[in-house]
Design a protein that fits this description.
- It holds the Pfam family ABC_tran.
- This is Phosphonate ABC transporter ATP-binding protein.
- Keywords: ATP-binding, Cell inner membrane, Cell membrane, Membrane, Nucleotide-binding, Translocase, Transport.
- One of its GO terms (molecular function) is ABC-type phosphonate transporter activity.
- The strands form two sheets. A six-stranded mixed β-sheet has the order 6-7-8-3-9-10, with helices on both faces. Strands 2-1-4-5 form a four-stranded antiparallel β-sheet, covered by helices on one side.
- It starts with a strand and ends with a helix.
- The mean pLDDT is about 95.
- It is globular, with a radius of gyration of 18 Å.
- By secondary structure, the protein is α/β, with parallel strands linked by helices.
- About 40% of the residues are buried.
- The chain is built from nine helices and ten strands.
- β1 and β2 form a beta hairpin.
- It binds adenosine-5'-diphosphate (2 copies).
- The site of one adenosine-5'-diphosphate (ADP) has 3 residues, from loops.
Amino acid sequence: MLRLDKLTRRFGDTTAVHAASLDIPDGQMVGIIGRSGAGKSTLLRLLNRLVDPSEGHITYGDTDVAALKGRELRAWRSDCAMIFQQFNLVGRLDVLTNVLTGRLHEMPPWRAMAQVFTPRERAFAIRALDRLGMAHTALQRAETLSGGQQQRVAIARALVQEPRILLADEPIASLDPLNARIVMDALRDINRRDGITVICNLHTLDTARQYCDRIIGMQAGRIVFDGTPDLLTTQM
Ligand code: ADP
Ligand code: ADP
């Protein structure tokens, strides 16, 4: 279980996240909704420590996430894989290499620099791509793929980290409806079959309703709704 206790993050005069308290059990699929600037992205970044809290606590089981440093912090970051609206692949590198970079944090720096990967690591990455229906693109440059294909590769890159939690920051905001559905179906499949907790920021309520077990609504840094999709339907 991931527990946020009165988590606050300020940027100067702006309170991006204000006293957020949440318990997220393992295996849940959570959608965070709210307008641009509501604090959704900051909340996700707090969870994997891309951003540090100003106040409050984050714990996962017995681990005090906000206190992690060095190697333990790197291990936590690989426990929480993240995907982004703009996919963040390295366009001129091939798809397989992009996926393999998901494991770079575990490698000695010289191997990461030289991009020397073992056959086992390659096989693992191909399996992750195959699961997303993307194995046939392994040797293509990432920049030659469509947006929906790039996001599936980004999910494969997240999977090779063997995460416990997958954080998705507006994963479908740049995609057309068909690709949005393919990507959301893939996230739900990962959640259901692998039991990985999925926490995704979404800009449309309909998508959250359709895919998530639980919806968290944010407004001006505060959590203003936390419940199941059916509850949201009756209240709004
Ligand atoms: P979103 O699409 O989630 O609203 P933004 O465009 O607000 O994202 O932010 C993109 C990036 O810029 C993020 O890394 C965010 O932390 C950073 N950022 C957002 N607002 C500011 C700001 N006022 N000053 C500096 N950086 C910002
Ligand atoms: P959302 O993801 O819901 O669009 P964000 O978490 O990106 O919201 O932003 C929440 C608020 O915090 C916004 O007012 C944004 O400008 C501000 N903010 C986010 N990141 C930064 C940053 N790095 N520096 C300054 N302000 C930021």
